[in-house]
């Protein structure tokens, strides 16, 4: 392991805003903070917003600055990445920002029903390999997990450069009858991006330099808690022929 990584891991352990449950604390088990984030961590009763796959935590920190009346938790398995956001939040004395280092697969061990107000998913891996479709962070199994802790009427925001993932998620939302509050296939080209949508993550900056349009989808669950797989032609092609697809 590189020296820089070791230094970041060591520093993470000193940051109050970094929460790092061990595998045995979340695997088939409720984590100690489940249902208690506001009482035991933030010390208030403000709405909690998650950023899943937060990387360096640009959305978590920037939203935390803009909305002091809300609490933000960036979730990522990579400690050396979320260190960046945690360092900024610590240096700026931000009391409404936390980082949870865990696999998203364990996230419903960490949050209780209704505990989360809103979710952001920022530039996740589109998982274009035919064996990885179920690993997409908007696949039915993941949505069912989020539905276990997202409050009634809560919204999911998906920002991605991947047209494939954007269309896949849109198709899944429509096929399951989920309420879609906003949908745009080029937020900067159409002038759709407002102040919040214009926050740029590390990956987003890279994709913008490549000239890729950035898409956005905002949807809720209505009264659905289980989600069906909906046929999606580009994935069918991927599955049957194993052809490569575009992002
Ligand atoms: C493509 S990067 C995007 C990072 C950041 N959102 C951005 O836009 O710069 C995807 C991030 O998701 C994290 N990630 C992917 N799958 C994950 C999982 N199952 N559990 C936790 N983190 C995950 C990776 O560690 C990585 O930091």
CATH topology: Rossmann fold
Oligomer: single chain
Tell me the number of strands. Answer: 8
Instruction: Give the helix proportion (percent range).
Output: 25-40%
Shape: globular
Q: What is the string of helix and strand elements?
A: HEHHEHEHEEHEHEHEH
Q: What structural class is derived from the secondary structure elements?
A: alpha/beta
Strand content: 15-25%
CATH architecture: 3-Layer(aba) Sandwich
Please, what is the CATH homologous superfamily? Vaccinia Virus protein VP39
Note down, in words, how this protein is organized.
The chain has helices at residues 3-12, 23-26, 37-42, 58-66, 79-91, 140-147, 163-175, 202-209, 233-241; strands spanning 18-19, 48-52, 71-76, 97-101, 116-122, 150-160, 180-184, 215-220. Helix 4 (58-66) links the parallel strand 2 (48-52) and strand 3. It has nine helices and eight strands. The model has no long low-confidence stretch (mean pLDDT 96). The protein has 247 residues and is an alpha/beta fold. It has one domain: Rossmann fold (3-Layer(aba) Sandwich). The protein binds S-adenosylmethionine. S-adenosylmethionine is lined by residues 53-55, 76-78, 81, 103-105, 122-125, 201-204.
Topology:
Layout: H1 3-12, E1 18-19, H2 23-26, H3 37-42, E2 48-52, H4 58-66, E3 71-76, H5 79-91, E4 97-101, E5 116-122, H6 140-147, E6 150-160, H7 163-175, E7 180-184, H8 202-209, E8 215-220, H9 233-241
Parallel strand pairs: 1-4, 2-3, 2-5, 3-4, 5-6
Antiparallel strand pairs: 6-8, 7-8
The structure holds S-adenosylmethionine (SAM).
S-adenosylmethionine binds next to helix 8.
């Amino acid at each position: 392991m590189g020296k820089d990584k070791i230094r970041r891991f060591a520093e993470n352990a000193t940051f109050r805003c970094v929460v790092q449950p061990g595998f045995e604390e979340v695997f088939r088990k409720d984590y100690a903070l489940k249902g208690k984030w506001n009482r035991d961590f933030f010390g208030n009763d403000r709405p909690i917003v998650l950023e899943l796959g937060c990387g360096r935590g640009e959305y978590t920190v920037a939203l935390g600055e803009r909305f002091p009346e809300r609490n933000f938790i960036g979730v990522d398995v990579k400690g050396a990445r979320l260190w960046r956001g945690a360092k900024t939040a610590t240096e700026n004395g931000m009391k409404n920002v936390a980082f949870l280092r865990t696999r998203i697969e364990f996230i419903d061990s960490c949050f209780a029903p209704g505990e989360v107000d809103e979710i952001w998913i920022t530039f996740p891996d589109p998982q274009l390999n035919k064996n990885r479709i179920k690993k997409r962070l908007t696949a039915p199994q993941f949505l069912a997990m989020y539905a276990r802790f997202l409050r009634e009427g809560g919204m999911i925001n998906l920002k991605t450069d991947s047209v494939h993932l954007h269309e896949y998620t849109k198709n899944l939302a429509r096929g399951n009858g989920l309420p879609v509050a906003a949908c745009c296939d080029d937020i900067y080209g159409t002038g759709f991006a407002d102040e919040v949508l214009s926050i740029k993550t590390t990956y987003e900056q890279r994709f913008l330099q490549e000239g890729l349009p950035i898409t956005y989808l905002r949807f809720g669950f209505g009264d659905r808690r289980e989600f069906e797989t909906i046929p999606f032609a580009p994935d069918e092609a991927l599955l049957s022929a194993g052809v490569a697809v575009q992002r």
